[in-house]
Specification:
Elements: E1 4-12, E2 22-29, E3 34-39, H1 50-56, H2 60-63, H3 69-81, E4 90-94, H4 97-111, E5 120-123, H5 124-134, H6 154-161, H7 172-189, E6 199-200
Helix pairs in contact: 5-7, 6-7
Length: 216
């Protein structure tokens, strides 16, 4: 049975998945490029990181708007289930997806008493690194970080490989589209072999945790 790929981007009100929350999620099913985007009402906006609010351009009042997390998770699950597959045959593609978004997605689903319905994960930052190792980039204007390293942020990675990206960074709907374009460009144009970079992380819900545990 083949794998179905989904591109996901989230926006959160901080970096700690135990106290911060997903306030936007956008999912692209790559087989037909159907996109589901939802805004999620934060239950604890007062715990928001100032830096996160500044980056995303949101206010505390903005975080109080949107659907409740249970309805968003239910809607997302129905979207996934349309493929008729099991979690073992779904791969989530994202930029910085494994160290960041995966943790928030697992936390969001777990707070709703659900296991996240995909076991396979592919990070486009890893593929961007493979691109830098494989190709001569001397003619490419590379953005450097404060420490002198090559920036692999989504917008910079898109520019690096020549993706004509959508505007407005740090909006899940737009960033998911740009991540999809980056992935396809790396694979289709630059022949980056990504199969060995797919990682397995099965979401197992801890039986002794409740929502209150996240805010002790």
């Amino acid at each position: 049975m083949s794998i179905v790929y989904y591109v996901i981007d989230t926006e959160t009100n901080g970096l700690n998945c135990k106290i911060h929350e997903v306030n936007e999620i956008s999912i692209i099913r790559c087989t037909d490029r159907m996109q589901l985007t939802e805004f999620i009402k934060c239950e604890h906006p007062e715990l928001s990181s100032f830096d996160a609010l500044k980056i995303t351009g949101k206010t505390l009042d903005d975080l109080k708007k949107g659907a409740d997390k249970e309805s968003v998770v239910e809607k997302a699950n129905k979207f996934f289930e349309e493929d008729g597959l099991t979690p073992a045959h779904r791969c989530i593609v994202g930029h910085n997806i494994i160290p960041f978004d995966k943790k928030f997605l697992h936390a969001l689903w777990e707070k709703c008493g659900k296991a996240f319905p995909a076991n396979l994960w592919l990070d486009t930052i890893t593929l961007t690194t493979l691109f830098l190792e494989k190709y001569d980039t001397s003619d490419i204007k590379l953005v450097k970080t404060a420490t002198g390293r090559i920036s692999k942020k989504l917008q910079d990675a898109c520019d690096m490989v020549g993706v004509k990206k959508y505007a407005a960074a740090h909006a899940s709907k737009v960033d998911a589209k740009n991540t999809y374009l980056l992935w396809r460009k790396l694979v289709d144009t630059y022949n980056i072999d990504y199969v060995d970079e797919i990682k397995t992380f099965v979401h197992e819900i801890a039986q002794d945790e409740t929502d209150d545990d996240f805010f002790v």
